[in-house]
Amino acid sequence: MPVKQIYLDHNATTPLHPEVKIAMQKAMDVFGNPSSMHSFGRDARALVEESREKIASFINAEADEIFFVGSGSEANNTILSIFTCEPSQCANPCNMAHEIITSKIEHPCILEASKCLQNRGTPILFLNVDNYGKIDTAQLEKMISSRTGLVSVMMANNEIGTIQDIKKIADISHKKGALFHTDAVQAVGKIPVDVKKLNIDFLSLSGHKIYGPKGVGAVYVKKGVKFCPLIRGGHQEKGRRAGTENTLGIIALGKAIEMRKVEMDKEEKSLLELKSALKKGIEKSIPDIRFNGHPTDCLPGTLNVTFQGVEGEAILLYLDLEGIAVSTGSACSSGSLDPSHVLLACGIPAEGAHGSIRFSLGRDNTKEEIDYTVTKLTEVIKKTRKMSTAYK
Amino acid sequence: MCTCELWIETLKGLRMSDQLNWVYTDKVKDHFVNPRNILKDDENFKEDGKGMVGNIKCGDQMMMAIKVDAKNNTITDCRWKTYGCASAIASTSVLSEMVKGMPLDEAYHLSPKDVTKELSGLPEHKIHCSVLGDKALRAAINDYYRRTNQEDKITAETSKIICQCMNVTDHEIEDAVLEGARSYLALQEKTKLGTVCGQCEKEATKLLNEYIKKHFS
Ligand SMILES: Cc1ncc(COP(=O)(O)O)c(C=O)c1O
Ligand code: FES
Predict the structure, then answer these.
(1) B44 with B102, same domain?
(2) N or C: which end of chain B has fewer CB within 10 A?
(3) Are A120 and A106 in contact (CB under 8 A)?
(4) How large is the angle between the packed helices B86-98 and B26-33, nearest 10 degrees?
(5) How far apart are the two ends of chain B, measured CA to CA in Å?
(6) A110 to chain B, minimum CA–CA distance in Å?
C-alpha cells in the first residue's frame, strides 16, 4: 500500500459527507414504513417529506414535483420510458413521442435506454457536439419538428465536465411543442440549478455524486406534465414509483443536498483554484498534452487531459500504484477497446481518446495533493512514453 | 442487437472473481511495474530482426526486436516497445524473458495462451490485450528470415475471407472472440459479418466455436 491515498475521481462517486454520515446513523433507528398510519410510519414519513422539501427548494421546485428513485440511471430510464406509451393500447395515454432527440455524449444509461426504444420503433436522433463538447443548437433547430416529443440533453458531462446552455436548448424544444429533460446527475450540487429559470420539464439527480449514499436518486417532473411510472405497484411516491421507500437513503440524500446548499459556492472557488494548479502543473512539466472539454463552461472540479503517445489504462494503474485514483474514458478496462464515445464525439481522434485521463476533484482535496499528483504524473508519463511505440 | 441480449453475453463472459483482486495477478503486476527488456532510446541495440504490429487507433501497438545466433538458430536477446494497457505491457515483458535462448522455430509457434500461462492468467476480458506480443515476435522472426534470405521458412499469416459480403476474415473472427464475442449474434455485432446474404453463418459459427475452444477452454 502506498503511504498517501489521493482520491481524484469524484465524478465516479464521492465519499459520504461527515454530516450525512451522522444523519444516517440517527436515521438507522427510524424503521417505520412511511406509508403506515401509526406513529412509526408517521415518523418516517416526516423525515422523507423533509428531505423532499430540501431537494425541491434547492432546485427551486415544489415539493410535490419531486419523487425518489433508486439511482440516477433509474431516473433517466423512467423519463425515457414514459415516451413509449402506445395510445391505442393505453386507457390513459401520456407523452407518446414519434421521435426523441438526445445527444451523442450522454451517459450510457440514456444512450442504452434510447437504443432500446429505437429497437422498439421510436426513432431517436442524436445531436452532435463541437470540439468543446457543446451541443450544436443550430443542428437542434433544424432537427426538431412537430414529431419530436422529447429532447433530453445532459446538463454537465461526466467525462469532460462541459456544461450545456440548458435554457437555450429547453426554449428551442418548447417552441416546437416538445418536452425537455436534463440529466443533471453531475450538475446538481456542483453548479446552481433552477428548474423554473431554465424552463425544465424533467430532471434527474443522484445521491452518490454529491457526498450522499449510492442507490438513491430523485426525479423532478414539472407540475401539469403527464407522467406514467416505470415501476408499478403500490401507491408510494403518489404512484410515481412503487416500492417501499428507501428511507435511510432518502434522508441521507436530503442531508447531502442541505450540505451542498451550505458549501457549494465557497467550494467552487477552491475547486477552481485546485484545478487551475493541476492544469498549470501539467502544462509546465509535461509536453504534448491537450485539455479536453470547455475552457470556461465546465464543472469546477473536472479536468480531462489527453497525453499523446500513451494509453490511458496504463497511466491509471501506474498512478494507482502511487495511491492516486483517477479515471480513463477509454473502455479497455470494461472489456472492449472502444475509446470514449464522448471524446470521439468531440472530434478527438481515437488514438488521443485512448490516452485520456479524467481528474475530478472534490471537497477534501488539498493543494499538497495536487502538487504530489503532478510530480507522480510527470514520472508516470515519462516512463510510459519511454516504452511507447507511439511517442518520439 | 438489443442491449438486453448484450448484457446476457456480458454475464456469461465475465466471472465475478475477475473483478475482485487487484486487477491482475502478482506476476502481471511485477512485470507491469518493472517491465524487462524495454528498448531504451540511447542504447545501441543492433537487432537482426524487427517487427511491428497493431495500430494505436485501436488502442494497442507492439514492436519487437530480436538478436539471433545464426549458428544455433536461437534468439539470444530481445527488446520491445508498446503502446498499450497494463496487460499488453506485462505480457510483452514476460514474453521477452521467455524467448531469450529459445530456438527460432519454437518461438515462432508461441501462442497468446503460452504467454498468459506464464503470467499466471489474465482476466478473460483482457486476453485480447496479450495477443499482440506473439504476433510482433513472429513479425520480427519473419524479418530476420527475410534479411538472411530464408524466406522459405516464413509461414505467411494467411487470412481467409469468411464473409464475402462484408469482407470479414478468419483473423477478425478470432479477434472478436478474444474481445469477448461468445455467440453468433455478438460476433455479428462486432464484425458485421453475415449481415447481408447470410451465407457465411455456418462457417462463421464453426470458427467461432473453434476459437472459443482454442483460447478459453
Ligand atoms: C451524467 C450521469 N448520469 C447518470 C449517472 C448514473 O447515476 P447512478 O450511478 O446513480 O445510476 C451518472 C453516474 O454514473 C452520470 O455521471
Ligand atoms: S457472406 Fe456473409 S453476409 Fe454474405
Answers:
(1) yes
(2) C
(3) no
(4) 90
(5) 26
(6) 12
Residue B85 near residue A355 (C-beta atoms within 8 A): no
pLDDT for res A226: 86
* ipTM of the complex model: 0.81
Residue count of chain A, please give it.
392
| pLDDT for position A223 | 96
What is the tally of structural domains in chain B? 2
Residue of minimum CA distance from atom 4 in ligand 2: B197
Statement to judge: residues B120 and B181 lie in one domain = no
Residue type present at position A80? L
Mean pLDDT of chain A: 93
**Nearest by CB: A314 against B14, B85, B128:** B85
Query: Is pLDDT larger for residue B150 or for residue A183?
Result: A183
Binned at pLDDT 50, 70 and 90, residue B20 comes out as very low
CA distance linking residue A295 with residue A283, whole number of Å = 14
Q: A268 or B179: whose pLDDT is higher?
A: A268
**What range does the domain containing B170 cover?**
161-216
Nearest residue in chain A measured CA to CA from B60: A311
Using an 8 Å Cβ cutoff, are A302 and A325 in contact? no
- Distance (Å) from the alpha carbon of A351 to chain B's nearest alpha carbon: 5
Q: Does A339 touch chain B (CB under 8 A)?
A: yes
Joined together, the cell numbers standing for residue A299 give 464543472
Residue A274 is classified by DSSP as: H
Model confidence at A143: pLDDT above 60:
yes
| CA A271 – CA A302 distance, rounded (Å) | 9
pTM over 0.80: yes
Contact A90/B at CB under 8 A: no
Q: What is the pLDDT of residues A1-16, one digit of tens each?
A: 556 899 999 999 999 9
pLDDT at B125: 64
Averaged pLDDT, A180-206: 98
Q: What architecture is domain A18-259?
A: 3-Layer(aba) Sandwich (3.40)
C-alpha cell at B140: 520480427
CB B108 within 8 A of CB B150: no
Q: How is domain A6-14+263-387 classified at the CATH fold level?
A: Aspartate Aminotransferase, domain 1 (3.90.1150)
Give the whole-angstrom CA distance, residue B134 versus residue B145.
16
Quick check: helix, strand or coil at residue B49? strand
Q: Look over chain B and give the mean of its residue pLDDT values, rounded to a whole number.
A: 82
The answer to whether the CB of A73 is under 6 A from ligand 1 is yes
Question: Grid cell 472530434 — which residue?
Answer: A347
Neighbours of A351 (CB within 10 A): 20
pLDDT tens, residue by residue, A295-353? 999 999 999 999 999 989 899 999 999 999 999 865 444 444 568 899 999 999 888 88
Record the cell numbers describing residue A392, joined without a space: 518520439
Q: What is the mean pLDDT of residues A66-92?
A: 86
Helical ranges in chain A per DSSP H = 18-27, 39-58, 72-81, 108-119, 137-143, 166-175, 195-198, 247-285, 312-321, 341-345, 350-354, 367-386
For A41, other C-beta atoms within 10 Å of its C-beta total 15
Kindly state whether residues B49 and B142 are assigned to the same domain. Answer: yes
What lies within 8 Å, CB to CB, of B9 at 6+ separation is: B180, B181, B182, B183, B185, B186
Rounded Cα–Cα distance for residues A300 and A265 (Å):
11
Backbone phi, then psi, for B53, in 5-degree steps? -135, 165
